[in-house]
Amino acid sequence: MTNSTPRQRARLETEAQITRIGNRMLDDDGLEGVSLRAIARELGIVSSAIYRYVKNRDELLTILIRDAFTAIADEVDEALTRDESVLTVGVTMLAWSRRHPNRWALIYGTPIPDYQAPRNETVVPGTRIMVTLTNLLEKSSAVQTSSELPPSHALDPLREGLRELGLEPDDQVIVRSVTVWAALVGLINALRFGQFGPGVELVEDELMRGVVSSLGH
């Protein structure tokens, strides 16, 4: 922002600090450890002053959710510049979830009680990887395999959602995208939330490779 005033720059820096502190609290203590009052203390301001930057806890959650979606999507995009494959998407998401398990839980875990993410702020960052994956599958020969598709009307909600994101894939690609996405996120959730029991943390990457291979990629 080259034409910004000192006050505007100071506000942007404070907002960035709030995000950094909030992420650290989330990493250290989970969602229960995220507190606007505690953030205010770290910033050295009175607790009431924090509301000049963040209206309430819901807005703070939205900021952290948007930041997490952006961070993981940025890593996927960067990794795909080196190797454009479904496996790259999967292992990059998996690695990010290992480094930031609480941030992963925030965006892909159990919905937060009494919180509704504003679509206008979270849909675009939250669907970046899905858009990337759909485009990748549309170019992949793997989507040409014949399989029984659900009735066309069953895909209407997905088709409309993808259309809102600027995508017009055929039904085969839609089903393939849903299948791959559910497999990647489902595996990572099972790993992060301990559904496979002890010891599996030693072979996470191998499991991801096996799942992606079983999907034909």
Per-chain topology:
Blueprint lengths: L5 H24 L6 H8 L13 H24 L5 H14 L1 H8 L10 H8 L1 H12 L16 H9 L6 H22 L11 H11 L3
Can you offer a commentary on this structure?
This protein is an all-alpha fold and 217 residues long. It contains ten helices and no strands. The protein has helices spanning 6-29, 36-43, 57-80, 86-99, 101-108, 119-126, 128-139, 156-164, 171-192, 204-214. α3 crosses α4. The longest helix is centred in the first third of the chain and has 24 residues, at 6-29.
> Count the helices. How many?
10
Into which percentage range does the β-strand content fall? under 5%
Can you tell me the CATH superfamily of the largest domain?
Tetracycline Repressor, domain 2
Structural class: mainly alpha
Jot down its keywords:
217 residues; mainly alpha; Arc Repressor Mutant, subunit A; Tetracycline Repressor, domain 2; 2 domains; 10 helices; 65% helix; DNA-binding transcription factor activity; Homeodomain-like_sf; HTH_TetR; transcription cis-regulatory region binding; HTH-type_TetR-like_transc_reg
Short summary:
With 217 residues, the chain is an all-alpha fold.
